[in-house]
Design brief:
Largest sheet: 5 strands, parallel
CATH class of the largest domain: Alpha Beta
Strand order of the largest sheet: 5-2-1-9-21
Number of strands: 25
Number of domains: 2
Bound molecules: flavin-adenine dinucleotide
Shape: globular
Amino acid sequence: MKKRLVVAGGGHAHMMLLARIGDFIERGCEVTVVGPSEHHYYSGMGPGLLGGTYQPEEVRFATRLVTEKLGGKFVEAKVQAIDPDRQLVSLDNGEQISYDLLSCNLGSQVPQQMVDGPLDDIFLVKPIERLLGAQQRILELGISKTVKIGVVGGGPSAVEIGGNIWQLGQTPGMKPVEVTIFAGRKLMPDHPEGVRGRANRSLQQRHITILEGTRVTSVQTGKIMADDGTEYECDLIFIAVGVNPSRVFDDSGIACGPDGGMSVNRYLQSVTHDNIFGGGDCIHFADQPLDKVGVYAVRQNPILVHNLLATITDQPLKPFEPGGSYLLIFNLGNQSGILYKWSILFGGRLAFMIKDYIDRKFMRTFQALEAA
Ligand SMILES: Cc1cc2nc3c(=O)[nH]c(=O)nc-3n(C[C@H](O)[C@H](O)[C@H](O)COP(=O)(O)OP(=O)(O)OC[C@H]3O[C@@H](n4cnc5c(N)ncnc54)[C@H](O)[C@@H]3O)c2cc1C
């Protein structure tokens, strides 16, 4: 009987797996990919998408098209739960899919406990595709009035979102866009002083207000409430307060790490279920908890492919080595960035151009499968 491989989520850690679907089919597997949309959006280019640097087709990968071209089946739905004993995945459309082998790349989500009421004119920075709706809304409002925008969060994504909203506000014919970043204790507290200083200067030169030492307690459509009792009126609000791994594993009784990500061993294999693998933001790498950055998801690609193929062919598994420090480049909008790794640190146009080159190259590599 054919082995059933279910690929849950087509994110950054599954790009190579999707490209190699044919190898699994050749070895007698039936491959089903499950994802909430026909496309996967590359988050590293999300702020640039919001700011108008990129068009949607430049930052997305056609998951359904590629899956079907390579002989797999694509199911447009969200994984809601996994029953590891019965080897079943339950989807939000009511369907259930059986698996012999399951690989999970379900990503992460922005916590929204601080939101009081509906999400009207409130945008979480994930899923990335929602940033397109945010862009349209800013352009629509900006035709007739000054648009006040609050960005809640003080980390890199808040900085990137704030800087790119400013860029969008430079669209000809727009009334001014006023951006305030509610940075909490301070802007980019986990980054070196040189990075913080550059981010602060870049944003302030463009009259983006940075509120430090103020904690946001709740958010409603049109309003941000701070812990000192002050209320700030905003037309649109972005929430960029970090991410939590998908809740699917915790809800399914699969062993999880302290952050709720599926706990995996050095082979990226669930510590409790050896026919479940995973990568990206949705896992907790038990040996060494990893930052939630795309770099690790990308580095996990070849290991996931190898270990899934090895499992069906009874070959030895390969361990994942997270590697040393990684290159970080932030897109601040206005064609400027900040780049740092080890003691190398610089900002400006060159940093943006390097990020743009790397990101476009990554996308083109996998988008080539769409045309093949
Ligand atoms: C605004 C922003 C900018 C960022 N910029 C960078 C950067 O420049 N460099 C960097 O290294 N990192 C960056 N990050 C972090 C990076 O995005 C994540 O670490 C990376 O996306 C993790 O990859 P992933 O594949 O695990 O998750 P995702 O990229 O989120 O992919 C998960 C996939 O699973 C799908 N999915 C989700 N839930 C389900 C479900 N229930 N069932 C089925 N499918 C599902 C999603 O649709 C998506 O296609 C950024 C994050 C944000 C929010």
